[in-house]
Fold this protein.
Amino acid sequence: MTLKEVRKLHNGDEVFWNDPDDGLTSRHITIQSIKVLAPDDDKDYGDEIVCIHGKNGDELECFAHELS
């Protein structure tokens, strides 16, 4: 997913996290809250951190490109 796509996500949206560790803990997450730790511009630097709190209590910090 690009940074621009991530910024369009909202509470209730579902995303899939592609675990870069051979998919060991890849999973679907329904978003309760989401925050992008990146500059306010829409440039995709490739290392933006996305913090997601899931409705089931999951917490995830990942790179934007790991989401689909």
